[in-house]
Design a protein that fits this description.
This protein is of the alpha/beta class. It is built from ten helices and 14 strands.
Length: about 280
């Protein structure tokens, strides 16, 4: 009798294990984005083509940049082609939801609020936030509180614009404009400041030496992590991208690309004290 009882218990455990495995397989197969990618053999990635040195066109009009080359390498490791759709940051998230693109890579910050609506890969870039201001007087900004009453150039839905508004600045919005448009307006006084990622701001300012602007010398705030953004519940493709990114981190590819484009290893967390900002709806 005990042997029969023991056999029944073992059979029950085996059934549960099998059903659990079937559930995992079903969940993986429910990733329609991965099914589409497998059918077409291609990943369609949204990017702006206007962010030096993340996503931009070089002197020969070839699309390149840290995010762009990461996605090309991910595609190579997954045995997939990668094509890019050029669009403004404000268009990328709706394009992911509508299925126009499979994912986006454009220095997009990973936040809790965005995670409610989208999947993210593991971070491939770590940074913080700073400002481009006029050289002569830092545009009158020596603290975040000094943003009150200033004009800040930015995208309508970016976290950087949210920071500007949080401290009382008026946000002057742009479409998918190049760095030159934002920074020229600081130089000519149409705006006072551009709040943005440290690496993007550093290279943007350096690209236009004739402008009377520079990187703010003291303000470092809002540490950030950037990754690939994908449709909610696209778990299989997220898993595959994470596997490729893990390999790239372990074999030094991420560090190599970061140093190539940023002249610093943006794939590692920055050192030093960085001010946190409370009250942001992230």
């Amino acid at each position: 009798m005990n042997k029969i009882k023991g056999s029944l218990v073992l059979l029950f455990v085996l059934c549960i294990t099998i059903l659990s495995a079937c559930g995992d397989t079903e969940k993986a197969s429910d990733d329609k984005v991965w099914e589409k990618i497998q059918d077409t053999g291609k990943i369609v990635v949204g990017t702006s083509g206007t962010l030096i040195a993340s996503s931009y066109y070089d002197e020969d009009e070839n699309l390149t940049g840290y995010d762009v080359e990461i996605m090309r390498e991910v595609g190579k490791r997954l045995g997939l082609d990668v094509s890019f759709e050029i669009m403004g940051i404000d268009s990328m998230l709706p394009a992911i939801k509508s299925g126009r693109i499979d994912m986006a890579a454009n220095d997009i910050e990973i936040t809790d609020k965005r995670k409610e609506e989208f999947n993210f890969s593991e971070p491939y870039k770590y940074s913080y936030t700073t400002m481009a201001v006029r050289k002569e007087d830092n545009s009158g900004i020596e603290s975040l509180e000094d943003l009150k009453g200033k004009k800040a150039g930015g995208g309508a839905t970016t976290i950087y614009s949210q920071i500007a508004e949080r401290f009382g600045a008026e946000v002057v919005t742009y479409g998918n404009a190049p760095n030159e448009a934002y920074l020229r307006d600081v130089d000519n006084g149409r705006t006072d400041v551009v709040i943005n990622d440290y690496f993007l701001t550093k290279f943007g300012v350096a690209a236009f030496p004739d402008f009377d602007i520079h990187l703010h010398p003291t303000l470092k705030f809002h540490p950030t992590e950037q990754g690939v953004i994908l449709p909610k519940d696209a778990d299989r493709v997220t898993e595959e991208i994470n596997k490729a990114l893990k390999e790239m981190r372990e074999d030094g590819t991420l560090s190599k690309l970061a140093n190539q484009f940023y002249k610093e290893d943006a794939s590692q967390k920055p050192e030093g004290e960085i001010e946190e900002i409370e009250g942001l709806d992230l």
